[in-house]
Amino acid sequence: MINFSKFELANGLKVIVHEDDSTPMAAVNVLYNVGARDESPEKTGFAHLFEHLMFGGSANIPDFDEPIQRAGGENNAFTNNDITNFYNVVPADNIETVFWLESDRMLHLNIDKKVLEVQRKVVIEEFKETCLNEPYGDVWHHIADLAFKVHPYRWPTIGKIPKHVEEATLEDVQDFYKKYYNPNNAILVIAGNIKTEKIKTLAEEWFGEIPSGDIPNRHIPQEPPQLEMHQRIQFSNVPVDAIYLAFHTPARNDKDFYTVDLLSDVLCNGGSSRLYRRLLRNERLFTNIDAYITGNIDPGLLIIEGKPADGVSIEAAEAAIWKELEILKNEPIPETELQKLKNKIESTLVFSETNVLNKAINLAFFELLGDADLINQEVAAYRKITTDDIQRVAKKILTKENCSELYYKSKK
Questions:
Q1: Is 280 a member of any domain?
Q2: Which of 41, 154, 197, 308 is the most buried (most CB within 10 A)?
Q3: How far, CA to CA in Å, does 279 sit from each of 13, 23, 146, 220?
Q4: Range of the domain at 49
Q5: Tens digit of each residue's pLDDT (9 = 90 or more) over 84-107
Q6: Does residue 112 fall inside a structural domain?
């Protein structure tokens, strides 16, 4: 059980505090409710660009890393389709340093031509290195484009093409900052060896005078049901062929989300999971196989990916996967198999909650979903899933008309 208190400043900043005296450290997490899904189709990659720009200095702080390091801490950030998240871990006695840093870049981020050019080059180089020059690097571009036709999940977080970031103007970037990087579009979480009353004082002192902005009016189009299989063959300079099957899944707040997550574990999580045990270890049809969910806030995907073994055609490998999916849909899984996976998930969740940073990040995300206390309900949500639930969801989701199929073939 993670206990916490919650309050909101007059400017709309939501603040969550979790006291944990078992550690000398404290984590400060700032979640901004903006991700790649908030971008224009003609201007993608902006949320990821801003993850970098937020480290480019502010009115009173030319370099964010140096003050954190002097305070004995570390910081970093991540962006995905739904959120942009900045996190810091410092000795609890030095926590005010982080309040100074985060409040200054929320209010006075330094966005000028020089900073933009520096970070633009970094992001474009990252795009080239991870997507264009790395084997299988552009896989997610193809999967997203296949699976989504109207929802902005149809492009990856890094953006559709480098050109969008290359042509981003200073005005474009400043408008994006003014629209989304406001206290009433953020959630501040502090977890660690701190006291709630002190945090209330610090939050008011450092963030209280930052003016709120206009809440972004989102008009994110809903992806219609997929009614037929989408297929693509991509030839590239990769060492071996690979196959990707992407199935549409419910939204993060849907009652079946946890069942879908558990279903992906039934398919491939560990040496005793079905696809790994039967297709890789026993039949030796694959050298690598995996299954996972994207976990998006809006309806996302369950992905099955694998690399066929030498001498096994990609078509034969896919047929073997579909055979296993049909078995799963038509034969209820044994209770012992399901219970083993539940135990594994529960131990993972419990272990993750020993880390103050994990708790800070998760409290922020669940608050964005609607209620930070959802963090305390996850184990129960997994526990109540039945074998009938797994079979019901498998029948609903693991169909060819709900599938986007990508063959990624070696040119040689």
A1: yes
A2: 308
A3: 50, 45, 26, 39
A4: 5-207
A5: 999 999 999 999 999 999 999 999
A6: yes
